[in-house]
């Protein structure tokens, strides 16, 4: 007998069936037992709270139907026969535990429930014998708030990158634009006096070509590199761009 089996056997000897069920019921994570026919044989209070159902509504129900999966009625045969069932990670994971006796730890997936909408889950399964047949102990952790926070942070990072890019564009383009405007006014004054200064015309052409170089750099950004500007930061176009580059993904330089 290995150490794990010894601990479990000792645990069973210390507590009665009712006491073990009471302990499972008090766990701060959703715990269910799935039998060989895919019926919920046990569901603790956290499962009931998670899907907004009482124990009588859950125990004895078939998998996704009992839990309130939105795709339960996609097929006349019920849970496990619809198109979405073929891709359902929860079903695939539990099925592997039931049929092959394999444990799975913290498998990430998402499901849409009738009562609570889409939720992001981490599921863990452990094989067990239930009524002399293969069963599965299922742990469900709702990580929806964590996933929403992660997505929010990613969106903030993207927004920050775009703000810095916009700042870089304004900074880079404003300089040649101011030069073009200034030399244009000088050229207009020359025209009023019947004169044309070649140097002013060449300067305008030079600044226009500088604008062209800036747009080329913008089209060839390959890295996310910043530099200090006023009280903030902007993308450093010279460091972040490659005129011959074709990769437009923004990746943070470490």
Based on the model shown, name its key terms:
254 residues; alpha+beta; five-stranded antiparallel β-sheet; two-stranded antiparallel ribbon; 9 helices; 49% helix; 20% strand; rod-shaped; disordered C terminus
Average per-residue pLDDT, rounded, comes to: 78
Structural shape: rod-shaped
What is the count of DSSP helices, taking H or I runs of 4+ residues? 9
Structural class: alpha+beta
Mind describing the biggest β-sheet?
A: 5 strands, antiparallel
Question: How far is the N terminus from the C terminus?
Answer: 51 Å
| Beta-strand percent range | 15-25%
Strand order of the largest sheet: 2-1-5-4-3
Radius of gyration: 32 Å
- Proportion of helical residues: 40-55%
Question: Secondary-structure element sequence?
Answer: HHEEHHHHEEEHHEEH
Ranges where pLDDT stays below 50 over 5 or more residues in a row are 244-254
Q: Write down how many β-strands occur, each being a DSSP E stretch of 2 or more residues.
A: 7
Please, could you describe this protein's structure?
The chain has 254 residues and is α+β, with helices and mostly antiparallel strands. 49% of the residues lie in helices and 20% in strands. It contains nine helices and seven strands. The strands form two sheets. It has a five-stranded antiparallel sheet, with helices on both faces. A two-stranded antiparallel sheet has the order 6-7. A hairpin with a 2-residue loop joins β6 and β7. α7 runs antiparallel to α8. It is rod-shaped and about 105 Å long. It starts with a helix and ends in a 14-residue tail after the last helix.
